[in-house]
Design a protein that fits this description.
Number of strands: 2
Structural class: alpha+beta
Helix content: 55-70%
Radius of gyration: 15 Å
Strand order of the largest sheet: 1-2
Number of helices: 5
Number of domains: 1
Shape: flat
Order of helices and strands: HHEHEHH
Strand content: 5-15%
Length: 116
Amino acid sequence: MPLEVKIRRFSGAVSGALFAISALAAGAFVPASVAAQTGEPIKIGYSMALTGGLAPNGRSALLAQKIWEEDTNAKGGLLGRPVKLIYYDDQTNPATVPGIHSPGLVFRLAQQRHHT
């Protein structure tokens, strides 16, 4: 199996695992009674390779994540709250990832945007 295929498979697996962990963590840190009362969406932010060499895998993973978002919201959301996915293109460039995931930047961008 060529190295590029192995890297793509690994990238897709890591992306899926990180997405699942972030979705679970988003609900774990908010008391259920407070969360249900506010009705505010649970925002899950992450970066994806939507352009560059890993873009085909990133777009496939994003499609799956959007389907999850729609299904979850159709069933009442998480803890009674809707889910909003906020994703950013990391351009398949490791140098862009720290900037996307810096705490202040992610918070500010999450306040400004709903979807990319």
